[in-house]
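As a representative case, the lines below give one protein's residues and fold tokens.
***
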Amino acid sequence: MRTLAAWLIRAQFRSRRAATLLSMLAIALGVALGYSVHLINDAALADFSRAMKTVQGEPDAVIAARDSAGSVPLPLVDEIAGDPAVLVAAAVIETRVRIGDLRTPVRLIGIDVFTAAAMMPALLPRDAERAATGGILDGALYASPALLAELGRQAGATLTLLRGDQRWSATIGGDLPAAGADDLLLVADIGWVQEHFGPAGAVSEIRVRLAPDSDPAGWRAGVAARLPPALLLRVAEDDSERAANLSRAYRVNLNVLALVALLTGAFLVFATQLTAVAQRSTQFALLGVLGLPPRMRLLQVLLEGLAIGLPGALLGLVLGYALALAFTQFLGGDLGGGYFSGKVPLIVPQFLPASGFLFLGCAASLTGAAYPACLNLRQPLVEALNNGFTARPQAVRNRHRQLLLPASLALLAGGLLQLPPLSGLPLAAYAAIALVLLIGVTGAPLLTQEIFGRAARLRLPATQRIALQNVAQAPLMAQVAASGLIVSFALTASMVIMVSSFRVAVDHWLDHVLPAPLYLRSKASPLPQELLNSLERADTPFLRVERSAYASLTLDPRRPPVALLVREIDHRDPAARLPFTGAVLVPPAEMPVVWISEAMQEIYRIVPGQSLRLPLLGGDVDAFVGGVWRDYARQFGALVISRDDYQRLGGEFRPSDLALWPRPGAEAAAGQWLAPHVAAYALEVAESASIRRLSLSIFDKSFAVTYALEAAAMVIGVFGLAVTLTASVWLRARELATLAALGFDQRMLRHALMLEGALIASVGLLLGLACGIAIGAILTHVVNPQAFHWRMPLDLPWLALLAGAAATLAAAVLASRQAANQATRLPLAQVLASSQ
């Protein structure tokens, strides 16, 4: 008996220690992933806000054109400046220029140094010591420290700025000491910028600071009502909200995926605490008989669960901070999503968010411990004292009643999928995903009873029949093991399906939007007219040239601008150049036609055939919506207008991009012909194949964090299966001892337990795959359109799914083998003797 007692103590310590550590790590991982995503996004938004404050200052209002090609006339500047409620009205001209071979366009900001001192102090220039140039009023340029470091220049050096055919050589007169460490900025006098780069008789925007005794809201409402349709008035809060809206859906999606790790961690805590309750059921019963109140027994189990969750959550906070630092180094502040600049933001933890994630970790652990605590209270004290813990299988219920709960959940999930997004987020769809997981968990007992119950009645060897009967009866621990695997594999399979569907759709889309072998662009500025004129000659090595220009329109100041693409498109066959998703409508005579992207249709609820009023070319233009096309490059909407319509409305077509078809056999000559122009004007040229490779690599990078979450979910799911199977060995010690007394040797017991683990894993994988396909369809057809405004056909990568299922099943067999090896080390004879 002493030997048995010593073995039981050691076995309990080892099994609980391993299970506790794994549960703690699962909680830590869930907290770490969610907290790291929050830290990175918060840092990126703070960095964006700081950069905005550097360039824009802190105005009470900004007046700007809705059309990026538009401007604010100078008479309005004088009118606003003369308003008694206005303290300062700072006129600004902002454009983008290229400098030599620097690949990134640079922001050139023209300021009035006197008004800038009150409105934008971070843009105030500092003259270099012993500078040989005049000041800002004499045409000197002032560069941010980051730009000076990028260029390798110092004060006194001469820069040549390029924008289309325009060139401006000027001397660096000093730096911008208050500019951010990563800001690539040039500042010059507004008069000089207007003289060399335009716009003539206008500015880009007016930044307004109101007098202290004014009514900001009333003033903004009055001015906004008097502004022409081509202009808008926005406040700083609009810029902050617009920046937050850029990545909100992306970070919410990542946080929801991170919570999956917490959910699986709760399953691990459940298994750990159930094992602990079973191991100490006699002790709890004795304490109950001696007078310990039931609520104290309940509280003890809950506190033990909290003892797992609290250290795990604290460890998760530390790990989350480390992951945030690592992710930003490899993926930048946008996590590869492309919403902010790729620079590394400063990660600054804050108390309230950290407390929130700490609470989530503790709540997940307490949730996992709640049912074992309640189960402990329902144990009859006398029976527990005599026989220990009893986890009776539920009585087999009527099949129709068993189907009622999954069917009801399926109907509720279907209803949720019909609801629109809430504040731009697919919250109802996320709830439907949770219901699909619950359907899988609740359907596990029914599936095991139907399949394995019938199989157990077949003429099979004893070991196989025993394993089938155990799974068919659905013991509590088997249900827990299958449930953890269902959740983890379903989420992993769904993300594989969604990412594969998206990647296949992007690949096919690139086939349509990259028809030319060669592309040339002048990023953020028009192409030089000299190049365009040269391409008109018949002696060029190009068979065909297609030109396009880009601008943007602000339809809602709280949303990111909509891209405006001016393309050379034939009205008779626009489908030859745009990947339409439906019918292409013929516009009324003499009415311009635009074709909108799917994202614009989703965001602004526009349908083909309606008339759309656009703030274009200094006024309101009514355009006919001729169709919807698929665009995976611009998440917040784009519209295409033909060059002919744009010029008919009075717009100046200034191409910034070229699609080039070299003559057959003249590919090398085409590159040689372009080389002087590329070098002279700092242009970018690329082959369609390289653009495709770059686009797909950016796609893969944007889902790097998603892949990490998938791997984490699967690792936790397999750990959960291992912990549960190992714990079930101790819970079934008497059953195993009885089988040994009936003639089962160690090999037979090992085979039975390994088969049982494989069957449980098979149930979990089968249901997980079914739930994963359903969730993948929800992610593809509901979450993506509502959150990211992209639609795509569903693609099922069966090879990847089956390979993942096979790898998981192999890991489950290894886990069950470990549990079976532990079972063979049980002193079965002493266990059987002690139970009599």
Summary: Residues 2-56 form the longest helix (55 residues). Residues 1-15, 333-342 have pLDDT under 50 and may be disordered.
